[in-house]
Amino acid sequence: MAAPANLMGISLMLAASGRLLKWWRFSDLFFWLGVGLFVAFGVVPTGPSLLAWLETQHSRPRELPGDVAGIIVLGGAFDTYLSNIYGWPILNDGVERVLDGAMLARYYKDATLLFSGGSGRLVHRERTEAEDAQVFFSSYPDLKERIRYENRSRNTWQNAAFSRDMAQPRAGERWILVTSAYHMPRAAMMFKAAGWPEIITWPTDYRTNGKIDLMPHKLDVLGNLYHSHLAVRELIGHAVYKARAKMNI
Questions:
Q1: pTM of the model
Q2: Which UniProt keywords apply (predicted)?
């Protein structure tokens, strides 16, 4: 993953290697590249500002629609690696996805609740998010008959396509899409491209105050780098999908 922290670490490692080999210009180049990345993404709140921009691209409806066919909750609320180790669902920072999904399903008493999440891991794929979600939603017995689980998806495009195949949405139906606010631009784009007739966005799990501010009012290197990781991953995913769509891949 081309996260700024990873690039910074690789640059400094190459700089150190260059020093050992007495490749002075090579070493200087990567040393200053590493320093530049540290300042740009560790000192300056570039990551939080990028994340704030992503989080403000979609909003919740001011008033809930009168009726919806269903609610789609995207995976991202469970750490399946730890869940597999301990034997029960381990929730992460994205827990608001499933909490909001349950809240909306209780509000719309006739709507289907569709949880979409397999395993996006390259290794340790023994457990899917859908398995964790089944255990989590078992604490909502009133929803049991209306919940469906899609457990094959490994990325956002598959979330959209596999959920569509399972739900078979009809023209005129409205579905609420629940995912983290910073992830919503990519998710909404892919659900539209996958042929969902009408999606109502329900961003949740906000990480910023929504304001773009590049002034470093406080030194929060770890926080800035973490937010940069989230933002850069989303922006790269967005760009890759658009490029593939243009090339019809």
A1: 0.89
A2: Membrane, Transmembrane, Transmembrane helix
